[in-house]
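Good morning,

Both structures are done.
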Amino acid sequence: MGAGFRHAVIVGKYQARGIRQVLEEIAHFLVGQGLEVSFERDTALNTGVTDFEAIDPQDMGQRCDIAVVVGGDGTMLGIARELARWKMPLVGINQGRLGFITDIAINQYKDALAPMMAGDYEEESRSMLQGEVWRDGDKIFEGLSLNDVVVSRGATASMVELRVDVDGDFVANMRADGLIVATPTGSTAYALSAGGPILHPAIGGWVMVPIASHTLSNRPIVLPDSGEVRIGIVAGKDVSANFDMHNLASLMIGDQVRVRRSAFKVRFLHPRGWSYYATLRRKLRWYEGVV
């Protein structure tokens, strides 16, 4: 619950067919609610919207006080990483099937947004991962992830061998197709399909899930998010690290991927009455026994 918002920025999945009309409709609705409205620059350029100012993420962070994201969870992941450092709240409107983090149906956006823009909403914050790749004592890459950091084998390679340390303690050498370190938000994404557990977003933890482990006793483990996970490349060809599915290809033997909790969190706003469990029920089709 908070005061009303003044300046919204609209971010859209601009590849989606017919999105321009939807975005302009939402923009005019927000203007009607008394807000100033801008468009994220790539969204404006790729849809041809010219009635509203187009601004880049830095301007968004400095000038806007809420982002309205129209698309799927992938669209939300991308802009969430960009805006987290400015602590800007995000609200997600889904054009297709409702997502885990874009939870307002497009045909209900007016009923949902009107009270939210006036300050009546539910808010939650989600932790992020800070991932780095180190080679010969030098940091050669860093990136933020809202879902996960994944180290995995190349398409033609047989497997990877990874050395895992947590807070300086040796955990295991794992022979597998790869390894996922996921936030609670990411626990319902790739980690879930690899057999990992669902972590409630209020839990200060990560889930570490081997992908097709060659040892049946290598199981998913839930770790506290207060430390650092280090994943060393012991063996394997064409090994890559993915940060929310953004690729850093060709890790070398001896490289190390380091994962720790980011200093930034993502703020999600939901309509009043929103429920995490209702989202799980809908997305995972837990309908049995529901009247």
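Second structure follows.
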Amino acid sequence: MQCKKVNLTRDRLLDPAAAEWSSIPGEPLKMDATPLANQPSEYIKASRDEKKIGKVRNLLVQAAHNGSDIFFRLSWEDDSQNTTITDNNVFPDGCGVLMPLKGGDPPIDEMGSKDFPVNAWFWRADFNDQARNTIAQGLGTTLFSKQCPIQVKSLWGQGAWAVVFTRALALPEQKDETVQLAGGQSVKVGFAVWEGSNGERAGVKSFSKEWRELALEA
């Protein structure tokens, strides 16, 4: 997967509808349901049908950087715009980006491990375009950073979501809770989508089953 270097401002690329995104390569990903066996909640394991988890099965990912900031644009088809919790069976739509925090090969389907934690960028449709930066060391261990360095903007229309995440490439002041990035390097990356109309939240989602190698153009 390519992360193209561009000469564009953060404000411009943060716009999901910016015309410049049409010239940035996209990679279509097949998404899979998270296994019920990997759900941290016994209630979820007992009450959900694994065949009905992970409604979103196709995700388009575009990535770019401008030498200072990195951008991910995630887009997928969704007939319903879910922005609130309704009757305990409809939840806000959401998406996320996942990377190994300290390198290595963490188990992507278990949100890392004690020896190989992961860093996730998380957006949900009821966050009013505020992102969350999280770290995890396995199932059920997700912690939110007190300070989030990520910006996000979302757009829903014509039966589809488009969400752009951005963050400075390097954040040495938050090295214990953020992945450090630079042009010319590669990093493993994964993605997740929550379809709120399908009752998806927390560990119930669709995800890219294997790490992808993201090459940041020098």
